[in-house]
What we know:
Oligomer: single chain
Number of domains: 2
Amino acid sequence: MHRILVVDDSQSIVLSLSKILEINGYEVDYALNASEALHKISTKNYGVAVCDIEMPGLSGLSFLEKVRKEYDNEVEVILMTGHLDQEYFLQAIRLGAADFIRKPVESQVLVNSITRIMERRNQKHDLGRFFSSMLRTNVCFELDPNFYWESNFSKAVNGFLKNALRLKRNFINELLLCMDEMISNAMIHGTLELNSQQRLFNMEELRQLMEEHKESGNKMDRTIHVCIEMDVRHHTISISVEDSGNGFDHEAWMRKLEQQKDVNQGAHGRGISMLYYLSDKLSFENGGRKITITRRIPRD
Length: 300
């Protein structure tokens, strides 16, 4: 059974819509404002939220934006409105609204909309079932460093790990944190070959440096290889990142990591220290140009 959340500042509307959805076999909760709705989403799993656009306090569009930012595609949002002008429509589309329904809401229109959305969600689950039937999944990417920060690569991988491999959100967050750190190190050391001062640049300064490289015609031709491998039989997932740089003395770093008791918070070595403590296994190949982390997949 799919749980639906109805959000409107009118109690008569939420009660009426809840009754319609319950008659059609859905489990329904309701909230009288967007803040209450966000709290409920943080405590329960909902397939769809049906939300009014114009409400006191946090608007429906702001609610949609927060849901997309914090819960990605776990909750689909249908927006209700008495009048839908072009500005609202375009903004809602960009924020990821699943559908729009005009007020007063016709019961069959609402039910049909939710049915279509649930069918799309089931297709995603079918993809997950397909990958879960594989004993081993190996997906590799070749990244162009000139466009990496514009590509939303982490967001795409997040969707793959969640929808295809069906991993838990907290576990995915740790994996992405490690992957971003490995790619960042590959960019800094293997692709850009930054000096010690430049390695202290923040993300915005690194983007600016990349832009300066491109504007000056110094387009980088060194690519970065990223591979994700899941082994169902051994309940492990590995992420490897390989660059074309000169590598580094990884054996000395591993000896140092094995001796230290806490995570290194300094600027130099912080990343590799974090990978060491967040992974079950940290390994290197090709003179340090390829780094791999392996994690055991938590069981339900």
